[in-house]
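pinging the channel bc i need a second pair of eyes. not urgent but kinda urgent?? the chain im working w is below, pasted from the shared doc
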Amino acid sequence: MSVTGLRCPGCGKKKHRTIDSRPTFGGIRRRRECLSCSYRFSTIESIGQMNSLRRPTRKKPVDGRI
């Protein structure tokens, strides 16, 4: 899956895959590989981007029975 507007620095195509994701200070670092030319590059996503992509969570009531 490709991120909108993200192009390979090697060939300019939009098709790539994520090889590795790691949390860093202030965001997530992702290693990507272009599916056209096999060029590998890194992207860093900031916390602000991640918050907008999170799904709302629902809290379920806790039942005291075991």
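so Residues 47-53 form the longest helix (7 residues). and The CA atoms of residues 33 and 39 lie 6 Å apart. — does that match what u expected or am i reading it wrong
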